[in-house]
Design a protein that fits this description.
Elements lengths: L6 H17 L15 H17 L17 H9 L1 E5 L2 E5 L9 H7 L4 E2 L2 E2 L21 H4 L1
Antiparallel strand pairs: 1-2, 3-4
Helix pairs in contact: 2-3
Length: about 150
């Protein structure tokens, strides 16, 4: 799983996910976190890996990653569009994400609205789903500011 998140966030999500699985009578899973930069760098890495596979003529469609966990609707929207790359003299569209089949009633239960403010909570064709809301703040040194 590709992620830009720190160890604390990875622990909280994997722990909560496995607690949910156990309550469902299912075994816990082991998370293989791949952390190598921020969301933009991971998106670029994903694009580059898929492009290289296509250019090499590989028929295998994967890059060894099952989930991309992190980032907002902008980055995931770019991933959902896929990429255009060249194989020989042909330009090829390569999808990078697959739609998730979620019953509409369940989707409406989890997401009463598709948007929060102007941001999407999930992709219209379900190529990505938001799983967390974050807040960001500024920290400053009052002495230096003066």
């Amino acid at each position: 799983m590709l992620t830009p998140h720190n160890e604390q966030i990875r622990y909280e999500f994997s722990h909560a996910f496995n607690q949910y699985r156990i309550r469902q009578g299912r075994p816990a899973v082991v998370f293989d976190w791949r952390v190598s930069g921020g969301t933009s760098e991971l998106r670029k890495l994903t694009f580059d890996r898929f492009s290289a596979k296509v250019q090499s003529g590989s028929e295998d469609s994967g890059i060894g990653v099952d989930l991309f966990f992190g980032g907002g609707d902008y980055e995931h929207g770019l991933l959902a569009r896929g990429i255009f790359t060249r194989r020989g003299d042909r330009e090829i569209h390569v999808p990078l994400t697959m739609p998730i089949d979620i019953p509409p009633a369940f989707l409406n239960q989890v997401y009463p609205s598709q948007k929060i403010g102007s941001s999407d909570l999930y992709h219209s064709r379900r190529r990505w789903l938001g799983v967390a809301l974050s807040s960001f703040g500024l920290v400053y040194n009052r002495d230096v500011l003066r």
